[in-house]
């Protein structure tokens, strides 16, 4: 399975021919200025929570491509109110069989307010079970014991975890999170975009290596196979 990093927490993956975007934040991200948001195709846009740095390009991409927005009830309905016709609301603990695989919406410990001040409901992450592999997109979250519930139901191949600290888990907690969800491969997200979340890449990789976990830190626009 090939994952492409588009900056911050924005990940692109194609599963069974379906194009999937997570938390598109490209246009306002100076580090992602080489990415042409108007050329991105999507069948689905998964949104973990309502903060601007995770929803900035959702509306424009959804309206242009007709992508289905998948998020919690509050966020899905907020985008529907802005004219996005295709949406699929979920809530914590719920699962759904999509045409590319099964997805469960799981807990995250964070906050969630939409750009206009509306409630973004409760933040979450997504567990994907597909014929091409299983993975966990954590969204923005602290380390939480709820993560230990995931491997009780799903054998993951890898996890996509925030490592930037300050607003989310940092490197040390992400290492613990990898153990909680039972993976030895992690794709990093939510780092370097702002001064508050700049990290030392070499130090992060060394800490993960010491824990026998393979950490992949991609440059914007780069891809890796998992």
From TrEMBL:
It comes from the Bacteria. Keywords: Hydrolase. The keyword GTP-binding does not apply. InterPro entries: Metallo-B-lactamas, RibonucZ/Hydroxyglut_hydro, UPF0173, UPF0173_UPF0282_UlaG_hydrolase. The keyword Ribosomal protein does not apply. Gene3D superfamilies: Ribonuclease Z/Hydroxyacylglutathione hydrolase-like. Residues 7-190 form the Metallo-beta-lactamase domain. Belongs to the UPF0173 family. This is UPF0173 metal-dependent hydrolase CRYO30217_02579. It comes from Parvicella tangerina.
